[in-house]
Amino acid sequence: MLQIDNLRASVGGTPILNGLSLSVNAGEIHAIMGPNGAGKSTLAYVLGGRPGYEVTGGSVSFGGQDLLAMEPHERAAAGMFLGFQYPVEIPGVSNVQFLREALNAQRKARGQEPLSGGDFLKLAREKAGLLRLDMDMLKRNVNVGFSGGEKKRAEMVQMGILDPQFAVLDETDSGLDIDALKIVGEGINAIMRKPDKAVLLITHYQRLLDYVKPDKVHVLAAGRIVKTGGPELAHQLESEGYEAVAA
Q: At the top level of its lineage, which domain of life is listed (predicted)?
């Protein structure tokens, strides 16, 4: 589903990704772990098409298409979803309004009819229920006044509503307490653990992987994948640290 070959990228003229290669098949969940400054968030932003991240080499294929040639909204319409480490606040725009507009924009790009208000609310209630998020929260402005855990749960509701083929989740466990971590993990499984979907889960810690069992774990250091293993690799990293494992 996603094929990254020798990807190189810079931010402000500074090289961050240095020949990163990775392949993720449909039905798989891959975790990427690594120390601060390794390039994890840069990889997420490059895949999402965030401005300011310059690709200087390599290629990325998504569903047989050249991902790097697509604008961010085209990537989203093709089935790519990016979950942010720090979801932004949007004052004056309700979650319901934002999510309905986003969903119908993607449906239009795919040649589908827009969802009516009633059908959308039914869908939103279903997905909010998976994340145990009260519908009253979705009537509030996007992330305004939300706790860290509420922001992450609201973002997973967004993922459920948009129903992407591929999700890049950048440190979704950041800022979550124990209960919220379990809820978010269960939500990811319910929404994305399917034969036609895949997830690239970026995290510092093994704790989220107790709930979202990855097929593969990759260690990212100095802008490239330096080691790949199964779920046991995450436990090894937790106990021994990156330097010992990636050496």
A: Bacteria
**137 CB-contact burial (10 Å; exposed 0-12 / middle 13-18 / buried 19+):** middle
Instruction: Report the alpha-carbon distance of residue 112 to residue 106 in Å, rounded.
Output: 8
Nearest to 217 by CA among 61, 28, 82, 79: 28
pLDDT tens, residue by residue, 52-103: 999 999 999 998 999 999 999 899 989 999 988 778 888 998 989 999 999 9
For residues 91 and 187, what is the distance between their CA atoms, to the nearest angstrom? 26
Please, are residues 238 and 214 in contact by the beta-carbon 8 Å criterion?
Answer: no
Per-domain residue ranges of the chain: 2-246
Architecture of domain 2-246: 3-Layer(aba) Sandwich (3.40)
Whole-number pLDDT of residue 247: 60
* Rounded distance between C-alpha atoms, residue 224 and residue 17, angstroms: 6
Residue pair 108/114 in contact (Cβ under 8 Å)? The answer is: yes
- Nearest residue to 140 via CA among 92, 175, 104, 99: 92
Q: Could you tell me the strand order of the sheet in which 216-221 lies? A: 80-83, 166-170, 198-202, 29-33, 216-221, 224-229
pLDDT above 90 coverage of the chain, percent? 51
